Every structure is written in structure tokens, then in C-alpha cells.
Amino acid sequence: MKKTLWKYLSFSSLLLPATAISCNVREAVGNTTYIKTFNHENFVKRNFLINNVKRVENDYESLLHSPLIKWSFNGKARYDSINNQFYQATSKYLTFNLAQRLKLYLKNDVILEFSNDSVNSSTNFTNSKSGIEQVFNSNDNNINSPLFFNSLKDAWKVEFDLRFDLPYVNNKGEKVNLNVNENDYWTSLQSKWDEVRLLFNNYGLKEPEKTDFNQSVSFELSDKNSNDSIENFLLNEIPNNLIFNPLPSNYENLFNGEYGKKVNQVYFTSPYVLHSNEFNKQIYLKNLNFASKKFVENNFKLNKIVFNFNPVPLDETTYQLQALEGFKQNLISEVDTRYLNYSQLNEINNLPALFNVTFATNIDSKSNPMKYFWNLDYLKNSDDEFTKKILFGIENSNEDKDNYFNIKRFQFRNILISLINPYSLIKLLDKTQYWNSLFPQATKLDGNDVDNYRDKVLFNYLDEINEIWTLFLTKDSLNKVNSYQFKENYEANILDLKESLKTKNFETLKKEFIELLNYFYELYQLNSTLKLNIDIPIFSNENTKEKNLYNEIAKIINSIDSRLNVSFFFADKNDKTNIFKYSTFIFDNSNFSSILTNFLFNNNDLTLLNNLILFRKNINVFKSINSLESASKNLNYIFDILDKYFDSSFWNQIFTNNILNDYLNSHKLDLNELRKKIISDLQTWSVRQQLDFINAFDYFIGSFVTNESYVQTNIYNREIIQIHFEKPLNDLGYTQYEDIDVIS
Question: What is the reported pTM?
Fold first, then answer.
């Protein structure tokens, strides 16, 4: 096998030391060492505490995360591209991690104890659509038993007993004479108390108290007799939320108050410890004192994980070449094929077994699929007064955003994001269909008449959701184009990239757009030679395919009028200085009412609440336009609810977290109780009202199709993995390195 591999090496001597090219390179690196390379800097610098109210999002968090129980995955998923299904699936099951047993307290006063997690994880599943199949155990005291999952629906309390002798270790994996105890979970929750209260409220849970962590770790519903259950909380939050990692009760006194500031001043309970952290490299070591002796004694698990970073990112061509050549020489263990060029992909496709093509997914149905938002704080970050005036209505240093929903300004933004055929964009990025909503595809409609509907999930209304609305003010018409029309336009121009990328009715939109430009140039008395600069960020790693595609899109838009100077550039998702910002909302459950409430009252981002406030200032203008009257009324549903709890002063502010908290405190309003009431009110709407609101909300807020906005049903990334590793598929959206097996 090794000899065969070297046939396909090329230009390696230009990129890597000649001594690396040898038949012994695998042994030199080590079969149990896993190496990944990132074409960006190491973002982990001075804060090594992961205790936050958020789901695991990246490799660093995944490696240091150690929950009470977790979802485990075993076996490589193998895909049949001809029949579009998996002929071998990954097994999924629950395992105890830092907990050794749990008790469920049922509403009928029965108490059930579960202390076993064994399953036959090597079960051979064939003809699997998803590539992941959950396995069960018929033993009634097993957390993978049907009894356990059925009982969750009637449970009002869960109680975890920790394993005995759970040592904290340092960055060398050495015990530090300190064990995990129940109170360490209370300490973790206390460290982010406001966010914790919100999280627990979302699930109808009682706020934690110190006594809940005396001899066990327990969580319970605020009302034992309510219709709520702890099922979603137990299966989704406890395994995946970073706040459920222990934090030493005396951490504030450790290392002279510097706990967590350096890699040698933090303790670990995870399967792997962060041994060293440099600007260009991280090294993780297997924790030989980890809670699970089964993991520690398993010689077929990774002993060492190395992440290499490029502090100064390489140009894409060089990075692609180094990545694949490094893989061929076993200097890199894993490469995401999305970042390879066409000829490299052809080489891999011709030899999939040799490259050990493996499927991975980063699908997350618990967050908003459309994450690009108009950045209302653009004023603070830009000196381009003209762009701020036209797009945001901001005059000079005046931060008043009331003009944001001026009807002509709204139409300008609406047309700008509607000029490109969304179906073509997604197809040219090798996806099947676009998704045109802020709401996840798995959103469960929960209107008062939902039982009368066969289709209760938003994805089933794909055709309606994927209508793109564009306002033609000169005709007072709201143009609606569906995905079938976009598809026809794409297929009719499939040999002409430029024409296929143009939206349907492009020429009509072009005329309307030019009239708007004329209006704004006249309004601000601008010279016609002055360019309108619109720099649009693409929040992803730079790659040739997207770069070329967006360059073509820029040409199309700029061809409309010589005054336009639109460009696209690749940006970091944390960069909040552009006309668009990247925002992720995490949802604790998939009900419409809960998702919308989370959108509006989110501790991390109040963008959507502020959008509604600004829209309301201009709602009468929108209602007066015949073509927008219906959509405006549909959005107005939410104001009817919010007016029950907020006075008129609420609608005269632009909120930050501090301003919102001050408002709530001054009006003696409890946000957690408020959220409950709003959720209950939203559930009084009919399903039709909920659907109409979603359509109006997406339109007025300005959601639009981007490189990420595609239907995510059974969409998988492909990776190439060294042949001596077996990496399972999972549905978590991140890699669990402890699930990777060494097979030779």
C-alpha cells in the first residue's frame, strides 16, 4: 500500500524536506499521532477556560470538553454514490463520561436508575439514508434502552452520580492532588449566571441552587406537573453545552488568581489535555488519568494530536499543494476536500480507497441557517459616509438609525441582495437546493391548530419558504419568484455563467436599481463620477471556487451602472466591522415559538429585536403601499404580543444587553418569565399565521442566500484520512477525537 501511494507524489521535494519522503515516514510520525493543518492563526491565546453557555463549535473546545454523559460514535460510514445511500453506517449511542449512573424521577413518583451504557457498537447497518444509526440495548438499567428514552418524556428530574476518584490533571496529564466534586458544577454555572438562568428557563427548568450539588448533580423542572420534560435538555444540552464541564470550586484562588490564563495554569478532566499552545502549533496528549479506564487502556485510540497553524495564511494555491503533498507523506492526517483544487479532487476521486475518503458533516439544526445580517453598527467602523447614507440612512456622525427602514433605502438593499439567482449560486457550489429562511429547516410549527396539519416541520413548506420577494416601487408590486423559476433560468443558461447567475427579471430589477441610484445621487447632490463602494464579506475560508464565483457576481452587479463598485472579500466570522456581520443563534429546542423568542431576546445578539424596533417606526409607510400591506400586517402580529408587556418607551431605544437589562429592571420585568409568556402567546397563533410571519420576517429583516444557505438534508463534507485511522461520521457538527480509532 505504501509503495502504491508514492506513485502519486509530485513536487514534494519543493515543499517538504527530502528526508520526509521515505517508506518509514509513517512510523516516524507514529500511528497514534493525528495531525491537522489550519491556514490561519491560532486564535487560542490567553484564556483557556471553556466554561461558557454555548455548544461546542471547534476542535479546541471538543478536545477539552468532558460532559457527564455524551453521544459516542463508532465505525466508518461508507457511501454508495450510485444509489445515493450508505451501505455501512456509523453507530450512535449514549455513554457515561464523568457520571457513572443517573436517576430519573418520573411524574408518577417512580424513580428509575440507569448505570450501564454497553451496546454492540459494531452492528452492521446497511442501506442507511443518513449514515448514522442509533443502537439500543434491551437491558432496562442501560441508558441506551427503550425504557430510558421512553421514560424521559415523563421525567421531571435527573440526578447524576459522579465516578469515584475523578482527578484533575495539568497540561502534562499529571494528577494535581485535586478531584472533581459535585460543587464544581455549581461553580461552573455560577461563572456565567445570567446566561445559565436564560438557558434553564428555555427548558422550563428550575434555576439551579447550591443544594442541587451537595451529593449529586441534579436538574429539575420548575413545575413538576407541567407538560414540559427534561428530554431535550438531557439529550442535547448536557452532552454538548460547555457550561456542563466542572470548574474547580477554588479556581479564583489558584495560581495567584491567574487560573486559566496560561496552558500550565489550568486543569483538565477531558480525554485529551492541551500540552502546549504556541502561535503556530497546539499539541494535545491522551489523558492517562481520564475517568474512563476503557478509553485509557485502549491502545487503538489516539495518543497525540497536533494542530499546525499558519500565522500568516498562505495563498490558496500553495496551501492546496502543501496540504495534499503533506497528506501523501503522512505529515498530515486529515484534509477537507472542499479546500482542494479540481485536479486534486480528480486524483482523489480516481483512488478513493487509497485516500481513505471519509464523510463528515457540520450540519447543525440547532442554529440559524442564514447567518449574514446587515450590520447596524457599521457606523462605528467605517469612514465611508456615502455608503452609510444610502445603505443605513446614517448622516455624518449622527447615530440615529430611524432612517434605516426608509422605503427607498429598504428597496435598495432588497434589490441589491436579489440580483443573483440563488438556485444558480448554490448549484455552482455543488449543493442541490437553496434555503431562504432564518429559521432552521427542522423548525416545528406549534400553532394552536397544528394537530390539523400533516406537515408540521418547516422543511415541508420548502416551495413557499424559497420564494424570493422583490419590491418594485414604481409599479407598486411585490414580485415573487419561486425555486422552479430560478431553476428554469439556470438550466436555460447553463452554458453561460454570467446569464445563469442573473436572477429572473434581471433587466427589470436593473432599471429599478438605476432609478434608486439616481434618487440618492440627487438627494445628496453627488457628482456622478463618485463611486458607491460596497465591500461585501464572505465568511468562509478562502478558496478558488468561491473566489471566482463571487468575482463574477461582482462583475454582474457593477455592469448595471458605472457608479457601482461592488466587491467581495473573505473575512473572519468574528469580524464585526463590515456592512454584514456573521451571527449565530443557538436554539434549545426546535419549536417555532421558542426559536422566535430566542431570536428577539438573545443575550449575545439583539440584532433582530433592534430590526423590529426600527421597522415599527416606519410600519405605517409600508402598510400604505398596497403590495406590502399584507406582509406588513403579518409582521405586525409580533407587535400585538410585545405591546402586552412593554410600554411605548421600549420602542424608542436601540438595545444592547446592558440597556435591555436596565429597561427590564426599571420596569420590574423578569426576562425569563417574559420569555415564557411570549412563547405561550406565540403558540396561540394558527400554523398559517406562523408561516405568514416567517415569510414576512425573512423579507423585511433582509435574509438572503449565501454560500451557506443550502438545504442540509443528507449533505456531507468529504475528507481524506490516513489509511490507518477510522473516523466515524457524527451529527454533532464537530469532531470527537476520542471516537477516532487506529486500525493498523
Answer: 0.71
